[in-house]
Amino acid sequence: MHKPFEQRNQSDTARRKLKTLARDSGLEVSFVTALANFTWDYDPSRNFPKESTGWVKNIDLPPEAEDQLRWIADYLGVSAEKQFSQSETERQLLDALTEMSPRILWSRFLSAASSKNYGHVSEFASFHYLRGADQSRLKMLEWEKAPLGIMEITSELFCKFFRGGSIERYRLAYLWTDLTIPIQYHRSKTQASGDWINSLLDRIEALPERSGLKDLLNCCQGLMGGSKWFKQEILQALSYADVIRVNDLNVTKMFIPEHRNENSPHFYSNEWSYPLRFWSSNGGTVNRSAVPQIEPE
Q1: Greatest Cα pair distance in the chain
Q2: Element at 54 (helix H, strand E)
Q3: Do 170 and 199 sit in the same domain of this protein?
Q4: Does the CA dihedral 142-256-224-104 come out positive or negative?
Q5: CB burial string 22-36: b at 16+ within 10 A, e below
Q6: Is 235 found in the same domain as 153?
Q7: Given 129, 150, 180, which residue is the final one in a domain?
Q8: Closest CA to 233 of 129, 99, 141, 155
Q9: Pair 202, 286 in one domain
Q10: How far apart are CA 196 and CA 207, in angstroms?
Q11: Could you read off the pLDDT of 135-188 as tens digits, one per residue?
Q12: Radius of gyration for the chain, computed over Cα atoms and rounded to the nearest angstrom
């Protein structure tokens, strides 16, 4: 049954989970809650009380919902009425890629493993995922055939902080939102350390031949916080950045999104993104030269 806007995310469970998500993301709870109200309902499911209600569907827009959308737009410094076309988003995304600092992205990524900040992981991943992007290549990304407005921006931003865009990264709307919408993060109270990256690469190098993706995940144990999904996204981001290399797949000589539908012969490996989904079949190694000497932010 469709749940009215004003009844979403009202339980103690929802408030607790939203507070945790906001803390890990370095964001205001009010902002994260507003994003969730249009995207994901953390209230317990009626049929499965131990699970969240889940994705918001058939979004209604009573006056209080419209007010909250305008508040989100003001918070972000964007127009609540503006609709962005495909050509606009492509042009702005290319401009953003040109202006971004790889060193800053690396610094934030290194600290994100300690703070469990999906937002910083996503920005790092998207930047490297789009290596070699140009106007024609961006046409390969999925576009919903409709202008992009504040409702869509709200949904894409929630996915950014909820799971780092791990499922959404093939979409132009997500990548544009991820890399062009400015976010004011609070500095993490967690003591950031970049030591984990070298320890992780040491463990990966020590893996036996024919190791699998579970072995890669196990290499993350004790080095970073977060769920196995967070650790998986850290590893996938490092594969886009050419730090974790899959044999016979050179990401520096391709446009990664062009290969997103290529599947591994190992069925469950396809729960991972390209190229890392081919780790079990191809094997791989690490490329330490792709890691700059830099301190976490």
Answers
A1: 59
A2: strand 52-55
A3: no
A4: negative
A5: bbbbbbeeebbbbbb
A6: no
A7: 180
A8: 129
A9: yes
A10: 17
A11: 999 999 999 888 899 999 999 999 999 999 999 999 999 999 999 999 999 876
A12: 19
